Each structure stands twice: as C-alpha cells, then as structure tokens.
Amino acid sequence: MGGGGGGGGENEMYGSMEQGNEVDYSAPLRHQEMSHSVASTSAVQQRTGSAGGPESEPSGVIDDYEVVYVKDNVSVHPTQNALGRISGRLRLIKQGSSLFMTWIPYSHGGISRQGSNVVIKGGLRNRMGSRAAERDRNLYTIRAVSLSEMRSIRRQTPPFGWQYIIIVLTSGLAFPPLYFHNGGVKEFLGTIRNHALLVRSAEDANVYLVNDIQDPLQRSLTSLELTEQPAPSAPTSSQEAPWPVVLKQETPVAAESDGKQEQSLRQIFKQEQRSESGRRRDQARDLSMNVLEKFSLVTKFARETTAQIFGESRMFLDGLDMDRGPVPRPPPGPSTPPDVEVLGIAKEARPLLENKHMKEESSSALNSADEEVVDDNLNADDDAEEQAATNVGTFELVDGTQDDTPALVWGRARPPPLGTEEWRSFLDSEGRVMDPKALRKRIFHGGIEPEVRHVVWKFLLGYFRFDSTYAEREYLIAKKKEEYEILKAQWQTVSPEQAKRFAKYRERKHRVEKDVVRTDRTLPYYAGEGDDNANITVLRDILVTYSFYNFDLGYCQGMSDLLSPILYVVDSESEAFWCFAALMEHLAPNFHRDQNGMHSQLLALSKLVQLLDRPLHDYFKQVDCLNYFFCFRWILIQFKREFDFENVLKLWEVLWTNYLSEHFHLYMCVALLKRHRRRIMDEQMEFDTLLKFINELSGHINLESTLRDAEALCLHAGERGAACIPPGTPPSIPEEEAGGWSD
Amino acid sequence: MSARKRTLLKVIILGDSGVGKTSLMNQYVNKKFTAQYKATIGADFLTKEVQVEDRLVTMQIWDTAGQERFQSLGVAFYRGADCCVLVYDVNVMKSFDNLENWRAEFLIQASPQDPENFPFVVLGNKVDVDGGNSRVVSEKKAKQWCTAHGNIPYFETSAKEDYNVDAAFQCIAKNALKNETEEEIYLPDTIDVTQNRPTKSSACEC
Fold it and tell me: Where is this region: Disordered (chain A) (predicted)?
C-alpha cells in the first residue's frame, strides 16, 4: 500500500533522478526488476537527467529508420491555463515494417534546435528551478509507441480552438489529447493510413480504429479471431494481444529477426536502463511510486478520456500492486510463444499508469476539458468496453509476485473446439480414453464441438468412466436406464389417494412443476407455454425422480437450471438423469439447507480476491460486502443465468474438466470482479448497488476473455490460490466420497 | 421539508415460490407482464419514484428467492427494510398457510426495532386464474388472518391483469414511509407526520 502514502518519497525521487544523471547513457537496455511501465516511467526521469549525453542521430544508429511525419507545435494542455501548455514535436517513424509515434516536448517551452531529431536536450541539471516544469514535460512525453499498440485515434474538431487527437491504446489507456496548433491532423491520419489499416469506426465517425496489419502477429490474430469479432471492432484482435506478457518478460525477448532492430531502436527512442543493483532497485521502486503520483494528473485525464470513449467500466492498472515486489523472471524456454517476441517493442511504449489512489489525489482541473468529449460518447460499445477491460485487467497481473505463465494465456487464441475426428484420436481401439488428462486439458482450452458434446459430457460429468470400453458403456447405458425407470416408478405409481396423504411428495412435485415451466422457455428445445412441450415434461420427470433418488436433498430452486442444458445436450431422459445426478454429487452442497456449500465457496472467493486484488478486497471490507452474496447466483448455478445458452455449454465443459482447478468457477468470479473493479470502487457501490450491478452484467459478459482472465489468474495464484480454498469446498467431492470423477 | 434528503424506502417481497413476486414487482415498476419469468435466484430489486402525499420517495423493491431454503441469506437482504410484503397465491392453499412462516422468518432475520408495529402488507395474487374458479383461499379467510396479525392491510391482485397492483404498492409505500419517518424522528420536519400516525388498516382501505 505504499502508493497512496508515498508522499514522503519526494526527495528520494529527486535523489534517484540525480543518480540517473550519472548513469552511463549508453548503457545497454536492461530489463528490469520492475514491471515495464514503472521501468519506462523511471526511464523518463533518467532521460531528463542525461544532460550532456550523446545526441544520437537516429539515422546513424538504425539503418532503416525513417521519419515519415513531423509536426511541430503539437501540445498537451494539462490545465486550462494557457501557460501550462506543453508544446512538442509529433513524429511518425517507420522502422522496418513497423510504424511508431513519438511526441517529445520541447525542452524550454520553445522549439528545440532546428533539424535535430533528438528528443530533449536535457536541461535538468542546469535548471534546478524549473524542475517541476521539466518533470511535467517528461511525464507527458510519448516515446515510441508502436502502431500495433494503438486501438484507436479520435479526432476532435471543436468549434473554437484547435483540433486535437486522442490516442487510445489497446490496453485501454489513453494519451492526453494532443492539440495541433499548426494543423496537420489530416496529414497525420493520412500518413498512418499509408502504413496501417485505419478504419473509421462505425459507431463514431470521429474515431479511427487502428490495425497494424503489417505486423505478422496482428495479422494472425486478426485472421484467427475474425469470426468472433464483430466487423466494426476489427482492431480488437490486437486488443487481445499479450501485452501483459510482454510487460512481464524481463528477459530480453529479442526475436531472431528483428531483435537487433528493436534493440537499436530502443537505444534511440527508449531510455537506457541502468543496471539495477539490489539497493538501486528499491530506490527505483520508490522512485516509480513517486513518479506514479506525479502521473496522477495525466492518468486521471487519460482515464477519463478513455472511459468516455469506450465506456465506463474500465479497469486500470492498480498501481498499488506495484510494491508487491519485483516482477519475477518468467520461465525462459521453448514455451514462450513467438508472439511475445514480436510484441517485445511494446515494453517501452506504455506511457501511462493508473493508480486508483491517484484518482483521489488528482485535481479536477481537467474536468472541463474532459467534458468536451463526453457527450457524444455516452453510448459506449459494450464490446469495446469488454475488450479494453480485459486488457487492462490482464495488465494488472504484471506486477504480481507469482512467477508463472499467465503470460502465455493472452494472445493465444483459444484453439478450435474438439471435433469428432480429434475425439476419436483420444480413444483406443476399444473406446477407452487413453489420456484423460490430455483430453481434459484440450477441452479446458478449446471446448467441444456440438456434435460430440453429448458423448464427451458424459465422461466429464463422471457418468462414463474414462477407462470404460465401448461395450462397457453400452452395458452401462442399458443398466442405468432400468435403474432410472425403477426410480421414476416410485413416484409415478403414487396413487391420488396416496398423494393426499403424502404432503412432501405433493409439495415437491408442485415446486418442480412451478420451476420447469419457467426454465429456458426461449430456447426452441423448451419453447411453448405451460407444460405443452414434451421436453418440459422430461425436465419435470427427471427432477421429481431425482428428489426421490436423493430424498434428503429434495428439489431446490436452481436445479432446473442445472438440468436443462444437460438434457438439451444428452437428449436422453435416463442418461440426462444420471449425468445430472453425477453433477449433483459435486453441487449438492450448494443446495443444502444450511447453505454450507455456498458459504464455503463465498468465503473461498473472498480469500481469492484478497490474494489477487487486495485493494478490491479492502474496498469490499470497507463497505461491508465481504459476504459476497452478490455473487450468489454466479456460484449457485455455475453462471447459468449470466450467459446465453450456447455459452453456458461452453463454460460448463471448461469448468467440468477440473483441469487447472476444481474451483475454476471461483477464478471466473475473481476475473469478473477484477474486470469491473474500477467501476465498483469509483461509483462506491455498496451492497444493494453492487448486487444490482452484478445482476445486470448478465448477458453482457464476454465468455472468451473472461475465461482467459480466469485462467491467467488461476495460474498466477498457483498454490497460494489453492490454499485459499478449503478442502471439500464444492464442487470438490470430499475425499471419502470421491468416486467416478477421478481419471 | 426543504432540507430533507431524498427518502429511500426499502420494501421486501416474500412468499412461496411461484406466487408471483417477480411479476408483481415488474408489473408495478415496469408495467410489464410475461408468463416466462425465471425462478429468482438469490435476490434482485427494482426502484421506483413514488409520490406519497406531498413527498417524492424512492421505493426500492426487493424480490427474493421463494424457496425457504435460501432464507439464511435473508439477513443480508432484509436489513433496513421499511415494509414487508407477504404474497400468496389465492389458488394454492399452502402458499397462504406459509404466510405465518414468512412473517415470522422476516421478523427474525430483519430484527426490526419494533416488531409489533412493523408494517406488513398482504397480497393475494393470481385472482384472475380460471376466472376465480380455481380459487381455494377466500378473501374472508385472508382478511381474518390479516386482522388477527395486527390489522395488516390486504389486497387482492393480479399481476397478469394489472389488477389492484398500483393501489397495493401505493399502500406499501405509505406504510413504509411511516416506518421510515419514525426512524428519522430526529429530523425536525417529521414531527407532524408522526403525530398524526393513523392505524394501519384505515390508512389503506383504498
């Protein structure tokens, strides 16, 4: 929690900066005990300090470097006060097949030396008095940001005043508006268009969506995800890119081909990183925290403008997590996907950090400027919101202490679902699943094609044993059908006379009947009114039978929600019954009278949030919401009400693999809460508003990105996450009862 | 009245599953009815601005799961309630018999300061079904029960036909407000209101 209270570190910051002055300017770029953003932030400071350092001529260092656009007198207006404006030079730089943008403020408020391509000629040492101004300038500096990192460019032409642009990154962060005092916006966009795909947003004619299709990764992602992304948001492919991965990579991830270029580019546009001794590392962290505070104005502005553009519920990097410790080194090795390397460049370019505490500190001087943008952007696109949130959400993981591979989760599109052919390849000649774990892993990552779902679910649910043969399963089906018929007959043979004296039976049947007629009636399979659909009758029969099979538990609301997709997929009454019964082996505690199963899951969730998002946990504590009842529905019926039917199927088969965790659904909860954390805290939601907010997320959750977030969180939490969840917490089966679920 | 903050009235709807709690709430707030509501899982609420006499209040109407098994959650949901609406289905005897349980359960879980005088309102819903032919609880019987429990106001309603729903909720708001003003008696402008507090039954013979 050092972030909010770091005011005392002001001097240290200057101290660090001065140390920075002595740093060998030509020291090779080294990464980094800190998360990327912090590193680049402190790099800003170092840059300032490097007075007298060599003024590199970029063209001398990078062979194929080319400035394709230059515009002077492009300004940032941190305040409404004209004196506070910071002018600078905006450039587009082409290197290889990539395009970068830089905006470097002039060092003394005027135009820097004519013809110089070089950034700031550092004045700090000579100008102790104007340190603050200098620092401000540096805070706003945009060093090489790759076009592939940009999500969109908003062009705004106010009736009075200068045209400006707002650049929003794929991470969801935005740069402050850049005002073109000498015109040139059109030319700027034109230049970009020459090098990348620039599409006018269908939603808002002032917004141009950027898609750097020249980037091979982008291209591949685009092609992979085309089917999932609505056309207007084409660039979302890049939003799914693994920025956080990159950020987390400490090892220089020089790709074979462009590693050298990247390196040299860094030397010019990025800042040299001094080597970090242990002592300095701490200072650097302190420094970064302080710098973060200085960023507050910028970030508030950035956040608000971004929020206005892409909707409110965005999450930004929780800067507080920064002080958890140095970012660990990710495991090197072949598992690192090549994507990561291509994106290595992104490391340097993330200009702005967000810290929730900064918001409180930051001045509201910018509000009126913000308002210019507000009105026409109120109707944010849900999708964009989702996407942006995802990325920033993932961004938050960067600063975790757990060394694992969540990095590898993002940017990797989910593989296509398991199809018939591939399913067969998992079976031996007699029909046994040869490698259940591999199968579970496969399904965890990709799901199942609808045409084999009905078979594979029976394994996942434990109705079929993985090591059973075709013949054994055939026998099982027949035997279980008989058993089912016997169970069903138990209540179907209750005569009216007997029923009169059998209140429990009547009540149960009545209760089931009340619920089945309002279960998934919008689905053609269950469509109709009342009980005029045979499948509704089957639902009822299975549920009443189950309440006799498990008389102690009986029927409870929520069960019809759990059964409905199973019957739909399995499409056989007796098999659906046994699949449902198998599922209930895990979920019955959700429906216990004492609600112990629910309470233990809610408690585990609370612990997980405490582990994975301490500030959010603290917030819930503060508003007396640690009971997590607002997540009750999510957990009770495994998100059944939160997604459309098709996505429920996709989610459940992932949950049922138990691949990463038996409690993956809890990580889903954390992922969702984290995704909306900023909104929850900014709007100071309390129990009622929070419940309402959570309930209304229903139907607006992007499954794929939430799965990815949850996967990353789960990997990230690792053993510590598992330790948050007491043994026996549903859907785990207590040890002594464990049966058909194992491999 | 000038300095008064906007009043939020918290109303809890309880009753057996399937008696029409969600439907009543939606009919009142959204003027909509569909036969295809899903069983409520957990809890949810809707809000509505209501004019009660000369005051504009916000009514927050909580809809909860109807199965008694979920009642252990009630503590969280019932807290700070200003009025409790008990709903039964006039066509289902059991749902009427259970009113007693719902009332008791509410008083335990919400533990209001003055349980004897806490405002309840009873709604007998679904009077439209089968033209009233499938009805098993008579109005007389329901009213007797209400009288015996401290003159609880009673309304017969049909969420489907939007029959008597507004009148019922108007009464609910009025009673909730009475309860609410009592709690805020420290506010100078509530004195008159509390002094004139009439008996519940007469307040809502509307």
Answer: 1-60
